[in-house]
Every structure is written in C-alpha cells, then in structure tokens.
Write a structure and sequence with these properties.
This protein has 368 residues and is of the alpha+beta class. It has 12 helices and 19 strands. 36% of the residues lie in helices and 26% in strands.
C-alpha cells in the first residue's frame, strides 16, 4: 500500500466487481483507481497465461473464451467449485485472493478498511472474505451488508419500516429493515436468483439480437466476436433504457458489420416482463407482513440501473412514496460511520450482518 491523505477505505464487492472509495481526514471523497483510472475492478480471473491475472483483460477474454476465465466465484466461497484450464486449477478462495492481491497493490495506506458485501452471502462466507483479504494484505476493520449501508444512508425517522432492493449479477435481493431508537435491524430477506442483473442484460441482448435478425437476418450471438462486443455494451444499454436515451451500437463479426440506432424506451420495454416478476416478489413480501404495503423503498445504485424496476416497485403500493436512491456521498458517509463505530469498539473486527448502529453520518466533518 502507498502513502496518501486517505484516512479510510471502503471496498464494495459483489458478484461481478469490486469498487474502492476513500475518504480523507475531513470525510471527503478521495478517488481510488484500481485499474488504469477506473475505481472498479472486474471480479474475473484469466487462466490462459503462466500467472493468473484479474481485471479488464480477464473480462475481455471471458467474452471470447469463457472457459479460460474464472468468474462468478463470490457466492461459491466455501464450496467445492473448481475452475480448470490448462495448467491452472483454482477454487473460489484462490480466485478471490488473486483479485484482492491486485487491489491491495493499488490501495493507499489507511487506518481503517471496511468491506461492503451482498446480503445473500452467509456469515461463514463473509468471514472468508475478511480472512482472504488478510492473506492478500488488506486488514479489514469492519464488514457490513450493502442493504444495511443503503438503509443507514437513506432512512429518515425512528420506527420507520423500509424495503431495500439490491442487485448484482447473481441475484435481486429484497431486505426489510426497521429503524429503532439506536439501530437499524433487518427483519426479513428474500433473494431471487432469477432476477439478477445478468438476466436483465440477457433481455436487452436478446432484444438487440432480434433487431439484427429483423434488419439483416444476422444473429450476433452466432459470432463470438460480435457477441463479445454486444456483451461488453450491455451495461450501456441498461443505462440508456433507464435514462430513456437513444444509443448507437456497432457490431462486427468476421464477415459483416451492423450499425443500430436504438431507443432507450424500446430497450426498457424489453425488460417489462422482468419488472412484472419484481412486482410478484414484492407482493409475496406484503403477504408475509401487511405493514409493508405502503413501506418506503430504497434502491441501491446497482438496482436503480435496472430499467422499469423503480416504477414497478412504486406501483405496488397505493400510498407508497416513490423509491429513492441514496446519493453516493451519503453511502460513503454510512460506510465511514460503520468504520468509526468499529474503531471505537473492543473487538478487532466488527461484522454488521443483521443490524447496524443508527449513527450520525460523518460527511465532511472529519474522521477520528
């Protein structure tokens, strides 16, 4: 780790990427680049060379030769899953250590590090993340689930009950939290493996492929090169659908080139059947607890990027306020509050898996 003015580091990790955020002694955001100028590093390990590497090169290889990479390993920590290619055989723990060693090499020296993880991980898997991070040279002060951080950043008022919606490529998670006098406590959780971000990406990829077939009778999914280009642009397609913007795509195979000018609204309509499934999940929660009918909804940034999801959740309740997305600075402040609380505790490491102390967010006010 290198010296800098960073006082605390937040590592937000999920199924497909890890993102780093830093804060100085005044609680102000400090950018941390994990690869080139990007704050994110894909959770993808390439096994096609002498020494496995993680990052964008591995992700690019995954589009062309998926058997030569190890990805999607975070939810499989502690299992017997193995990835084999040429001379390499790695398990989920090995792959995570490879990624975290690359992250450790780019992190500034800081007095505290907090991990933010998906809520679908078991407590044992969360402990494995911290233990593997220690082996990689990252000494974590605390760990918290992302829905608790989102709730700490967005909940206003004691006694309120909220539904926090989080998403990554593995699953869409619904976590019900209640704000009490001194803490925010998780009271219910539901995880839908069939509504992860990967499914939404496949929906927009299918929509684009059908347009190509309609226009030129060519399916980009039949060409590894064109399909890889389409997969690499899936995130920008989701963004265009959420913002209702037009998007221009160029797809190229070994034999043809196809240009497309698509409407964000049309892309969003390709995901409406998924939004209907979200409504069914929310209805199931409401049947378990009738008080959730008008509960406010908080969206994590990754869930907010799914087209039609916010409107679908909003439509579920007659008097429900529109879903809100906490600002990045508030999410950083919530994570810093967790770090500060952990530093003042007696334990060397603190795990916030079901509840988190309700405390003031140190936004620009200085860290201890």
């Amino acid at each position: 780790m290198k010296d800098s003015g960073v006082k605390a580091v937040v590592l937000d990790i999920d199924h497909d990427r890890i993102e780093a955020m830093g804060a100085d002694s005044q609680g102000r955001l400090v950018p941390i680049a994990l690869q080139d100028e990007a704050s994110e590093l894909p959770l993808c390990v390439a096994l096609d060379r002498r020494r496995p590497i993680a990052g964008r090169q591995a992700l690019t290889l995954a589009y062309q030769a998926p058997l030569a990479v190890c990805r999607g390993f975070l939810p499989l920590l502690g299992t017997t899953a193995r990835w084999e290619y040429q001379r390499h055989t790695v398990c989920a723990e090995d792959a995570l250590e490879i990624v975290l060693r690359q992250v450790a090499a780019r992190l500034p020296r800081a007095s505290a590090v907090v991990f933010v993880v998906p809520s679908y991980l078991s407590v044992d898997q969360m402990r494995r993340v911290v233990r593997i991070a220690s082996l990689a040279g990252i000494d974590a002060s605390a760990l918290a689930t992302r829905p608790l951080i989102v709730a700490l950043a967005g909940i206003e008022g004691n006694g309120s009950q909220n539904i926090v919606v989080d998403a990554d490529d593995w699953a869409l998670s619904f976590v019900v939290v209640r704000a009490q006098a001194d803490e925010i406590r998780q009271t219910m959780r539901a995880v839908d493996r069939w509504l992860g971000r990967r499914i939404w990406k496949e929906a927009v990829i299918r929509y684009v492929a059908e347009w190509c077939i309609r226009i030129s009778r060519r399916d980009p999914r039949d060409s590894p090169l064109a399909y890889g280009m389409l997969q690499a642009q899936a995130e920008s397609l989701l963004d265009a659908a959420c913002e209702n913007k037009r998007v221009f795509l160029e797809l190229q195979s070994e034999l043809w080139l196809q240009a497309l000018d698509l409407s964000g609204g049309d892309i969003a309509r390709a995901c409406h059947y998924l939004a209907g499934m979200v409504v069914q999940d929310v209805r199931r929660l409401e049947r378990r607890d009738a008080r959730l009918t008008d509960a406010a909804v908080l969206l994590s940034p990754t869930a907010a990027q799914l087209p039609a999801l916010a409107s679908a959740v909003y439509a579920c309740g007659e008097d429900r306020p529109p879903p809100t997305v906490p600002a990045p600075v508030r999410l950083l402040g919530a994570a810093l509050a967790v770090v500060t609380r952990a530093q003042h505790g007696a334990s060397r490491r603190v795990f916030y898996t079901r509840s988190v102390p309700l405390c003031h967010l140190p936004l620009g006010e200085g860290l201890a």
